[in-house]
Amino acid sequence: MRFTSEQRFDDGVLEREFTLGEIPGILWTPGSASAPAPLILLGHPGGLQKMYPRLMARARHCCAGEGFASAAIELPWSGDRPRSAAAENARADLHRALEAGEPVHDEIVDRLVLPLVETAAPEWRAALDDLLTLPEIGGPIGYAGGVIAIGIRLAVVEPRISAALLFAGSFVPRALFEEARQVTIPLQVLLQWDDEGNDRQMALDLFDAFGSKEKTLHANMGGHIGVPQFEGDAGNRFFARHLK
Amino acid sequence: MRFTSEQRFDDGVLEREFTLGEIPGILWTPGSASAPAPLILLGHPGGLQKMYPRLMARARHCCAGEGFASAAIELPWSGDRPRSAAAENARADLHRALEAGEPVHDEIVDRLVLPLVETAAPEWRAALDDLLTLPEIGGPIGYAGGVIAIGIRLAVVEPRISAALLFAGSFVPRALFEEARQVTIPLQVLLQWDDEGNDRQMALDLFDAFGSKEKTLHANMGGHIGVPQFEGDAGNRFFARHLK
Hints:
homodimer; alpha/beta; Rossmann fold; 9-stranded mixed sheet; 7 helices; 9 strands; globular; AB_hydrolase_fold (chains A, B)
């Protein structure tokens, strides 16, 4: 991991861009920390630059509110990383189906999401290896955000992740649905009740499927990007309960 | 309204029992209040004495956490109040159906819940009239708890109620389901995912039916009485957003 730039915000939060091999990432750490900070991995749909304003706001809210560090890495085939023809094709097929108002077949979801999960999960884990060598980071790890299928995989395979706040706003392959039953860490699942590109019943079934004894669903009105601001505070408190 | 007893707790909260005609009730007010406190009406399934430990804990949590006053009154045909043969019959029919594992017909729900709503809602409103004459109480009003059908009715007919935290844990007559569409105040709806005596799909449909633009569903694992403690804090924050 190599740091390539840094800036410090008014609230003391230090933002550092880094590369991990060819993968760009961003790390935010609290201004004042007496002990190594718990770390939240910030999931997102891909495109770090496009997502930057939202990720930065969320990271600083985590830092300022609870003293957590946060990090995000670019997803495979997104942002400045090399494209995948297969992924582009699957995405085009998805959009065609959605625009035509047709059901999205499992086959399209599998082609779109499974390779992403297979590639991204090991990258997040490698980033975690490196991030945990920094003296300012330590203690339990959380995962927050989408892509929910990546969050499911990480919750199952990465024992360093102690709690996850998952955004049920994207398609989940049947295979990951089955993996959800193996998740045992505490979960908070966010659902936008009128999410245009998300099947509400599928999200409720997924919530039901998770194996975790402590899982909470927060469903709010509105579309995909309409998550109310107060859920940022609710997320902080969820992680404060489980990462401190 | 006539106060019949009072005690002050270590945390400064003043608890006063009162009667409103033949209806017993309890009022909790914060120890130190510089201004009139917003009031939370604490809904419950009936039986003030049986419910006292939970109501008292919730009221003191509201007082200590947010400086809210809280009040509860006995439900019709519960606790020390005169019984209703019709209500007893309906309750017996409900239990027979549940024990036999049979579906609970609308007719039973109507007989059990509609008269309760028709009688209890005006009583709550009369209590509100009297409570609001006290100088230590003022500002916006919230309703918290079950019986959810009573909460729906009050949210529709009582304009002084500004926000409601409803516990989806009891049967809702079809007619009240329709009334739910007329509710426009902010709602937080609690659902216990594995509630023995509650139909999960009905609760989700009810959440969908509410007309409120701001409504949040908090679903947690466990049975009817297993609402996690952190939902007490979440409820306080919901009311803090809307009653302050």
